[in-house]
Amino acid sequence: MAPIVSVSNLSKTYASGFKALKGVSLDIEQGEILALLGPNGAGKTTMISIICGIVNASGGEVTVGGHDVVRDFRQTRAMIGLVPQELTTDAFETVWNTVSFSRGLHGKKPDPAHIEKVLKDLSLWDKRNNMLRELSGGMKRRVLIAKALSHEPRVLFLDEPTAGVDVNLRKSMWDVVRRLRASGVTIILTTHYIEEAEEIADRIAVINDGEILLVEDKAALMTKLGRKQLRVDLAHPLERVPDTLSSYNLTLEGDGNCLIYDYDTSADRTGITSLLAALAEAGIRLKDISTRQSSLEDIFVEIVGAER
Ligand SMILES: Nc1ncnc2c1ncn2[C@@H]1O[C@H](COP(=O)(O)OP(=O)(O)OP(=O)(O)O)[C@@H](O)[C@H]1O
């Protein structure tokens, strides 16, 4: 299937001469959740703004649903919902009016049944007659999503959807995002919360300094780059790693009470069996064993760190 969003060789040089994007290419598949990860100033917002037609590119091409975002701006904009970080609408307007008005702005005929569904899906139905200023911060964020969904977009961009949001609300936002995906909407989210990407994304794109460093299926990324650690708690502390174990990649921690073994999850042999045999041979008694998988955060820090 053709990608729903196709970004090819996109570049952006701002008037100041700053190169915010340096030839970025990225295909986004219909119905996926793609997380765009990158440090501050990486170029995430610039890229999203170009796709949404808010910022002009300096070079390259973007299509949404097969239409060019510059030549066919109306068609592409109608297909896109954008959830910005901040609510800038009238605080004295009601939830219902705000969301209905937003649909009108995109040139769509009124459809109260659709607005009702959106508000119910986002648990805002009870608040439909409240003014925005009467809502909590989390509810206001959901109003932003409702606005972006008011015109039935096929692609939804969420810019930092859960920044500054408490844990419960974050989880309920993730449910909303998953439900949207289940209804066929393609979702692109930027986030600084790596656990968010780990939790809900199907694919991860890492952008740094205006360049895409990698785009990969989340599970494949975790397997490919993920390392595991075996932690062996010892019955009696060691002063140093015995010479007979020097061929293993071992470090001694916790005042000599714990051996850490780093191994590669994708390797044919992890070496665990022989390590445990060698420990027994060396007369080392074990108290406990545990393993730890490197998180997406470890992987991210490694990739971006290597570039710097
Ligand atoms: N209008 C502008 N004029 C000049 N430079 C700009 C302009 N807008 C953004 N930039 C620069 O382009 C770079 C990328 O900015 P962008 O907002 O795309 O980053 P980001 O990845 O979204 O960062 P954050 O995570 O902080 O939101 C930054 O160095 C920023 O200073």
From TrEMBL:
Residues 5-234 form the ABC transporter domain. Keywords: ATP-binding, Nucleotide-binding, Transport. SUPFAM superfamilies: P-loop containing nucleoside triphosphate hydrolases (SSF52540). SMART domains: AAA (SM00382). InterPro entries: AAA+_ATPase, ABC_transporter-like_ATP-bd, ABC_transporter-like_CS, ABC_transporter_ATP-binding, P-loop_NTPase. One of its GO terms (molecular function) is ATP binding. It comes from the Bacteria. It holds the Pfam family ABC_tran. Belongs to the ABC transporter superfamily. PANTHER family: ABC TRANSPORTER ATP-BINDING PROTEIN. This is ABC transporter ATP-binding protein.
